[in-house]
From TrEMBL:
Enzyme class at the top of the EC tree: transferase
Gene: tsaD
Annotated organism of origin: Faecalibacter rhinopitheci
Span of domain Gcp-like: 22-310
Cofactor(s) required, per the database record: Fe(2+)
Family, similarity comment: Belongs to the KAE1 / TsaD family.
Annotated Gene Ontology cellular component terms: cytoplasm
PANTHER family assigned: TRNA N6-ADENOSINE THREONYLCARBAMOYLTRANSFERASE, TRNA N6-ADENOSINE THREONYLCARBAMOYLTRANSFERASE, MITOCHONDRIAL
PROSITE patterns membership: GLYCOPROTEASE
Protein name (database record): tRNA N6-adenosine threonylcarbamoyltransferase
């Protein structure tokens, strides 16, 4: 049963074809235009989705070596995300399912990030229930307990900025282009992670806060550049490494706390920030240090992609969880 999946929640247009947990194609058109503005411009994002959607879907079908008449269902990202972006993929998916007379399947983008761990080639082993997932992306930072595919509990989440936002906003202060996360990761590899210290936020329970860190970085940089206008350029690698180390420490502390509290030792990561090499290394380290079993998905399934929507589509198809004719996109969508 071939299923086509469409992702258009933010600034990446994605299409993917799945057959029995196996991804046959995973096409993503990233929108370069937003770099010029230092962040995603919603109006430009929806226009670019409209431009990209047909070629991206065509390519996904072509790479999977199938004809659209062979499709058994269409899955699409219902939310959460930017409304103008969601509407493009949603309307396209709905029309295509109507014209082919096949079921439409609604997918929660955040469930997609988590369930990407179940794609056949995402991981060597698959987690068993219950497991804990640290979902870290551009808009979310959550510790989720997954009791079953569609039974998830949020144990903790950010009360302000997301981890990805913390990377991107710190990058902006350091004059790095958007999105800064991958660049900070790269520069951190040659920087000293303990050279600059930033205080950790005090947040109760398993919740996170990153807005204080952003302010601390801003004040620190303002103070230092007053004394030395070239401070950023001269210390960029150490700055990146120290900021990354601080963010990862905050995430790992709470993850450890969640594991201790629940007694669950199967730990997965998901979302764009889970592409980060320090997070991946620290999770792996947890296997020796804390007796964890770590699930670290392949890179291409971490940042926004349609393969993660396809795996959820497949799981819902098997359970006949189909959308009705009045299906609509939603900007906010709880897992
Ligand atoms: P959401 O899923 O919450 O709606 P999103 O879809 O925009 O948000 P993703 O595509 O999952 O977010 O992730 C994008 C974020 O991941 C950006 O903030 C980016 O900087 C960050 N990111 C990507 N690669 C890395 C990396 N190697 N290290 C740190 N951050 C990274
Ligand atoms: Fe995402």
């Amino acid at each position: 049963n071939y299923i086509l999946a469409i992702e258009s929640s933010c600034d990446d247009t994605g299409a993917s074809v799945i057959l029995d947990n196996k991804i046959l194609s995973n096409v993503v058109a990233s929108q370069k235009i937003h770099e010029l503005y230092g962040g995603v411009v919603p109006e430009l994002a929806s226009r670019a989705h409209q431009q990209n959607i047909v070629p991206v879907v065509d390519q996904a079908l072509k790479q999977a070596n199938i004809n659209k008449a062979e499709l058994k269902a269409i899955a699409y990202t219902r939310g959460p995300g930017l409304m103008g972006s969601l509407l493009v993929g949603g309307s396209f998916a709905k029309s295509l399912s109507q014209s082919l007379d096949i079921p439409l399947i609604e997918v929660n983008h955040m469930q997609g990030h988590i369930l990407a761990n179940f794609i056949e080639d995402a991981n060597a082993d698959k987690p068993t229930f219950p497991f804990i997932c640290l979902t870290v992306s551009g808009g979310h930072t959550q510790i989720v307990k997954i009791n079953d595919y569609f039974d998830m509990e949020i144990l903790g989440e950010t009360i302000d900025d997301a981890a990805g936002e913390a990377f991107d906003k710190a990058g902006k202060i350091l004059n790095l282009p958007y999105p800064a996360g991958p660049i900070i990761d790269k520069k951190s590899k040659i920087g000293n992670p303990t050279r600059f210290k930033f205080t950790k936020p005090r947040v109760d329970g398993l919740n996170f806060s990153f807005s204080g860190l952003k302010t601390a970085i801003l004040y620190f940089i303002q103070k230092e550049t007053k004394l030395n206008p070239n401070f950023i350029e001269e210390n960029i690698d150490d700055l990146c490494a120290s900021i990354q180390h601080t963010i990862v420490n905050i995430l790992m502390d709470k993850l450890k706390q969640a594991s201790d509290q629940t007694g669950i030792k199967q730990i997965a990561i998901a979302g764009g920030v889970s592409a980060n090499s320090e997070i991946r290394a620290r999770l792996k380290e947890g296997e020796e240090k804390f007796g964890w079993k770590a699930f670290i998905p392949k890179f291409e399934y971490t940042t926004d992609n349609a393969a993660m929507i396809a795996i959820v589509g497949q799981l819902k198809y098997e359970r006949e969880l189909f959308a009705d004719k009045t299906a609509k996109s939603v900007a906010k969508y709880h897992i």
